[in-house]
C-alpha cells in the first residue's frame, strides 16, 4: 500500500507529532555535528575592530601550541559588537582530542596581568549554560547508608593476648594466630593472589593492605573483610603516618585524569593532580588528601628513597625534602607551613623526633615538635647538623663538623636524645672513623656530647625508651677480605657522674665489647632489655640473643650487664623481626632474595627455638603491630608485682593447649571454683556472732634480774 | 615444717582443740588427765586432773574462761582454765562421747553413749559464767536418739547456736533445732560413696563462720555439708577409715586424719598404716599432700583458728603441733585460684 503525498499530509495533520515519543530514534540516529571540536574561550581582551586580526593571530598561535586550529577564518570566530570584540571567541580544532587538550592546558591561562582565559567545551555551554539544564535548587546528594566493618581492634581482645602475623608464601597470603610451638591458627582461610606485590599492616595494626595493579585495598575487622579501595594505578610503594591517619602511595605512572565525564566522576583525583605520582590519602575517608609530583631529581631513579614523606610523631606535620629546601605541611589542610618552604642549602637528610620533646624552657603543653637535618661540607663551610623546632622554624642547636663523609641521625624513641653517627675520613681520605654526637634535647640549650671512636660504626641502635645503645663497629684498615670477622659489638650505657640533680653529666661508656664478629644487624626488643644481634649475609647467618640487664650477683647495679643467652645458626636468614609484645622473634628466609632454606623460624625472646618451618617460596613474615598499651605506669607496676600469679595462669593455658586431658581437669577445676565462689557469696554479708567477742591484746612485760654484781672501783 | 612433739599423754589421744585465739591447745586422751599446752612452743601450761578413766572429749568456751570435758567415768566436768580447778561435775547416765560449747559459750552439749541400757542422748546444759561452781544440775534440753535412727556419735553447734548438728553411727547427719530439740533435717552422708560396712561418723568440725561443716567417717570418706540447705557440697575420698577432719581457714584446704583400725595396727607396717594427715583441696576435692609422723592412726586434728598451723593427736599417744611454712601459703593448685587470691590482695 502506498500513500500519495496528499494523503500523507492529511494523515500528518491528524496525528499530533508531539504525542509520539521519538527519543529512541533520536538517540539511534543522533548526528554527530562535530561540536566536540569547538571550544569557547572567555576572558579574552576586548579589542577595537582594527586590532581584532592581531588578537586572533596571537590567540591562534597560543592555541596551536596544544593542538591544531582549523585553518582559515573558520578556525577562530570572534563576534563583534559596536566595533569592538566582545571578549569571547570560538575556536575550532581539527579533532576533539585537541579541544580536550586545550581545555586541560589553557583553562585558566593568564594572558597578561588583566586577562585570564577561560576555556570550555562548546557542548558544555549547551549542557550547563542553558536555563534549566542545571537545577537551580540544591538537592542533597544521597548519603550511602553506613556500613559497619565490625570492631577493627577485635584481635586485641584475644583472652590469651596472642599476637597475629601474616605469612606470605608463593601467591598466598594468610593471617594467623601465634600459637608458639603448635601450628599457627589461621584467622581466615589463606587467600591466593591476595596481593600482587606485598601486604602491609598499618603502624597500629588496624588495617591490612594489599597491593594491586589498580591500587591499594584495605582489610580489617574480624576475619579481615574488605574495607576500602584506594585507586592508584600501578602503585608500588606505600607508607603510613604514625597515627595511621594518612597513607602515602607512590606509583611510577603519573596520574592522568580520564577524559570522559563518567569516568571522571568515579576517579579520585581532580585535574590538579594530573601528572602527579605521590599521593597522600586520608585513611578514614578513603579520599586523597593531597597529591604531589615527584621532585625532578628523583624522577627516573631506580632506588627510590622511601618514605618520601616523613611525619611528625602525632601526624600534625609532614615534610618532604626537595633540593635545598624542606616542604613542611600542616595536616589536615596539607598547606605549606606559613605558606613557604624552609630553605636549607644542600640538605641531605632530615628526621622528625619520634615523640613530643619536652624542651627545657618550653611552656608548650605536651612537648614540642622537633626535627633534625644535616648539610654536608662545602668549599668554605663546615658540615652541619641542626635541630629545628616546628612550627617556629627556630634552629635550636647546630653542630659544625668537618671531614665528614656521611651522617646518620638516630632519635631515641622518646625523643630525649638524638645521636648523630658522623662518619669522618682522615685527612688523606683513605680510612674512615666515626664520631657519635649526642644531642640532649630535654636539657637547657641542648648540650651536645661527643664520643670519638677509632673505628667506623656500621650499625647503631638505641634501646627503646632507654639511654642504652649498641654499636657494631669495624676498624677501617683497608683490608676488605670478608672472611675475616672484624666487627665489634659494643654495649653502651650512660655512666652518670657528678652530684645528683646538680651538674649531672653522663658519659657514655661501653660495658662490654665483643670483638671479631661477623654480626651486622641489631634488633632490640620493642620492650627493651633483650636484643638480638644477627649476622645477615649471603654466606652465613647467625642470631645471638642477649639480655642487657642480666641479673647476677657479680655485676649488680651496673647500668648494663649484657649476657649472651643463646646462639643459633640460620644460614638462609634474610630478615628478622620482633613481635610487638617483645616475647618472640622470627627470622625468615625470603624467596624474594634467594631460594635457600625458604621458610621461617620462631624463637622465644631468650633464644629458644619454638618452630622451624620450611615453606616453599616463602616470601615474608609480618607481625601485626599493636597500638600503644593503655596501661599507665602504675598499672604496669602492679602487673609486674604480681607477675608470678599471672604467668602461672598463662602457663596453665599453655598446658591446656598441649594436653587435652589436662585441659578437662583444669576446666573442671575452674568450674568448681566458680561454683564455690557463688556459694560463698551468699554468706559474704552475714555477720558471725562469734566474732563479736572483742579481741583483747594483753601485753605482759616481765623483768627478770639475771645477775647482780657488785664492783668496787678504786 | 618441723612439728613440736608433745609427749604428755600416756595413752592414745581422743581429742585436741585450740582456744579461740589459738595460743592454747587442749588435749584429752585415754589416760585420765586433760592437758593444756602453749601452742607456740609446746610447753605444758598444766593438767586437769579429776576424771577416773578415759576422757573422750574436751571443749573450751570462746573466752577461754571455762573448759569442759566428758569421759568414760560417766562425768562431765567443768574446769576453770586459769586455775585448772574443776568447778562443777555433772553426772551422765552413760559414757560421755562428746562435749561442745555453743559459739557464744552460754550452752554446753554433751552426748551420752547408747550403752548400759541408756538410750543415746544429746543433753544441753546452760552454763553460768558468773558463778561457775553454781550450775543447774538438770539439762535444759535432752534430745534422744530418734526411734528409727542410730545413736549420735558426734555433735556441734551451727552459727549463733541456732542448730545442733549431729553425726550418727549409721552414717547419717541430722539437724536439730537447738531451742526445742526438733528434728529438722536428716541426710545420709556416709555409706553412699563407698561400700564399707562400718559407716560411723567420727568427727564434725565447722568452718570459720559455721555456715558449713565437715564430717569424717569410718567409711573412708569425708563430706562437706552446708548447714542451711543440708546438701553435700564436696566429698573427699581416702583409702582408710577416717577418724577426724578439719577445715583450714585462709587456705581452701581440709585436713583428714585416720588410718588403719587401731586393733590392726600391730599387724601392719607403719608405711602401710596410712597414718598420715591428708590435705585435700576443699574446692577441687583433690588430695594435695600428706604429713607423716604418727605411727598409729590419727584420732584427732585441730586447725589453728588463724590458719597458721595445725595439731594432730594419734593413737600412738603423741600430739604433733605443726606450723605452716611460707610455701604452704604460696601454694595454689590452679592458676585461676592464684590470680583470684592475688586480685583480692590488690
Describe this structure in words.
The complex is a heterodimer of chains A (714) and B (346). Chain A has 714 residues and is α+β, with helices and mostly antiparallel strands. Chain A has ten helices and 44 strands. Helices cover 15% and strands 34% of the residues of chain A. In chain A, the strands form eleven sheets. In chain A, strands 7, 8, 9, 10 and 44 form a five-stranded antiparallel β-sheet that branches. In chain A, strands 19, 20, 21, 22 and 23 form a five-stranded antiparallel β-sheet that branches. Chain A has a four-stranded antiparallel β-sheet with strand order 2-5-1-6. In chain A, helix 8 crosses helix 9. The radius of gyration of chain A is 37 Å and the shape is extended. Chain B has 346 residues and is mainly β. Chain B has a single domain (4-345), classed as Methylamine Dehydrogenase, Chain H, CATH 2.130.10. In chain B, the strands form seven sheets. Chain B has a four-stranded antiparallel β-sheet, with no helix packed on it. The mean pLDDT of chain B is 87. At the A-B interface, helix 8 and helix 9 of A face helix 2 of B.
